[in-house]
Amino acid sequence: MSRLLSRGDHRRRDEALERRAFELRNCRGARRFRRPAVGSVLTRIHGTTEHRVTVVDDGFDYRGERYRWLSKIARVITGTVWNGYPIFFGRATGT
Fold first, then answer.
1. What's the pLDDT at 1?
2. Helix, strand counts (H, E) of the chain
3. Which of 3, 17, 70, 71 has the least CB density, counted as fewest CB within 10 Å?
4. Would you state the pLDDT for residue 11?
5. Do 89 and 70 contact (CB within 8 A), yes or no?
6. φ and ψ of 54, to 5 deg
7. What are the per-10-residue average pLDDT scores of the chain (95 residues)?
8. Are 88 and 70 within 8 A, CB to CB?
9. Which residue(s) pair with 52 in the sheet?
């Protein structure tokens, strides 16, 4: 059974939602994606092949083609969907 909220209940709920939205917008307590510096080279061995991706101003360069997302490169390499930066290129562990 649901109960009707009083004006005070609505106000407290709305304030809590506003605080949470502010925290999410400002990524407090959350890890933010930090793009590697331009010129950095990310490497990954998949199968028996070493794959090298260079960070460029407008995205990433892989084998002479420009990509906006590392996830797309990971998909090109493996044929399956990956989270490119933290998972496929091993940055989740800080390596």
1. 39
2. 2, 4
3. 3
4. 74
5. yes
6. -105, 135
7. 57 75 60 76 90 93 94 88 70 44
8. yes
9. 43
Cβ atoms 49, 39 nearer than 8 A: no
Q: Name residues whose C-beta falls within 8 Å of residue 27's C-beta, 6 or more positions apart in sequence.
A: none
What's the Cα-to-Cα distance from 6 to each of 15, 18, 91, rounded to whole Å? 14, 18, 48
Residues 6+ apart with CB under 8 A from 20: none
Taking residue 54's Cβ as centre, other Cβ atoms within 10 Å add up to 13
Distance of alpha carbon 74 from alpha carbon 87, whole angstroms: 10
Q: What are the residue ranges spanned by the domains of the chain?
A: 41-88
The token duo for 23 is: 């925290």
User: Which amino acid does the sequence have at 41?
Assistant: V
